[in-house]
Amino acid sequence: MSVEGPQHAPSALGGAEGMAKTGGVAGHGISGDGQNTQEALDAMSGVRYARPDVTDTRTTCLRLLGDGRDWEEPDLSFGFFSGSPDLARPAQDLLLAPPKTHEDKAAARSSSPPEGSQQPEAAHTWKDEPLFLVESEAQRLGRNLEELPNDIQEHILRCQCSCDHLGYGNFSRKGVSRLTNGCSGRLAKMVAGGQSQPNQDPNRKVKRQECGLGTRARAWVCVVVVLGAAAGVGVGVPMALRVDPDASFPQRLASAKTLLKDSPLFDGHNDLPWNIRKFMHNKLHSFNFTAELKKLRPWSRSSWSHTDLPRLKDGLVGAQFWVSYVPCEAQRLNAVQLTIEQIDLIKRLIEQYPEDLRLATSADEVEAAFREGRIASLIGVEGGHAIQNSLGVLRALRDLGVRYLTLTHTCSTPWAECARAQETDEEDPNSPRGLTQFGKTVVREMNRLGLLVDLSHVSQATMREALEVSRAPVIFSHSSVYAICRNPRNVPDDILQRVAEKGGVVMISFYNYFLTCSEKATISNVIEHINHVRKVAGVDHVGIGADFDGINMLPERLGDVSGYPTLFAELLGDSSWTLEDLRKLAGQNLLRVMREAEQVRRDLQEQGLRPYEEELPPEAPGDSSSCFYRFSKTPNDSE
To answer: N or C: which end of the chain has fewer CB within 10 A?
Structure first.
């Protein structure tokens, strides 16, 4: 994430000399003695440096004494920075006050210890040593200072600590070894009323002052440390999420947004690429993903359009499976060509918006993209007809970056049966046809390749046989619950139980006909399906696969990709949902499934399992629906 500051802010220490000449921050007329500092900073634009939602935060001007050993803080009320060395980077846009005069700075550079004495280990000079702005994930997603208890606020304002105070640590200089991870800091000097004191002799000993915490504050810090350790690396549990289920909806919505900034929302299915083909003929030069498409034709006139970058950001989407879909009518024709063209489109879209999107092919890459503030973008292929009965095509799709294959769409393939051909068709749950022998081989080869087996759209017999064959967990990328809505596309309870046994995940679709079997649905219906999967399969096996841009009827309050925080705000009103449960629903369950599939792939590689080479028997000659080249042996072929 970029750190936005005033346009003329000096970079690192490069502008220190020019700042010294003006006695303060270059270009802004901020007095070096602290007078009129607040007034000058009030006239500046807000500095956005830590969290994406903080826009009215100002930088702290820190002064380093001439010998580099002690800190003094002219005004500690402007802003705070945290300390995480692994995320340190040069403070290019940070306003830093230099030593009080140019002479002080020169003296600090040229000063040397008396002959025969040793240079103090902690001493540092300004020469060739940049300051680092350290931006940790906890700080970037932390709470507002005003939300903390008064004694915590006072401690943060007064102490120069390197520990991370609920995401609001302080600015630390590289190489200052005596700053520890404890919450006891040393101040060179406390400044009353935000005013700095007259210049001091840089070699003068300065009284050190310990900054302690009150009893209540120590209790808060201990809770934070325990929760942070329990959360593991990468994500923590924001204190702001400890809300009463009876809190107002705006309060719960704010907490839901904090949750989704801390843990990625991972949606399993979005059909935007097909809409780009329909509306723009895959011509990205005339497609503006940063625009509000709901205000532009032809998108604004379509009930199938729900996605653009502004709404993805409003919805706090952290990871998305973009779908390469081609109609069933392409089966036995040019399905492979169209599928590859859609994959190409997805990749070009990601490349065109590198600040917002990042291609991801593994769980680790998803989390890396999320830490960078970009939407992890993965590729799924919807419909087994896309591989045209070829294991070679399946392997090629994997090499192109595909990470799941939906075994069927609304058409059966020669090796797998679908749920039904039309939305209004009924399926016989007792139909014996599921996977053929070749279909089972497809599943085994997907395990070997690390591809997720997606069972949305398949018949119940196909579900059961795929679950029996697969060594890796399976997913339902966009389905709902059969016990609530008896739509053939939904998942019956016995399958939910088998999914849990295999470690898979069922991702709830927002399509009204899958929620209520009618044209009308509400957000409560979505929650009903989520709760049913949690009850039958367990909280480790439920996720979200809304199917935006692939459906035309959506529940109230969930009309596009911006609605996810609203869903989680409603779930926060249910005391049976813990924060850890909500993180699993948001995306941790799907990330776990991806990692387990990746592990199965590694295990099979270590076992030396070779690619499967089975082929389907050729179709009957003269089949008018077939467009295949048939290999045949001629008399001249050698034996």
So the answer is: C
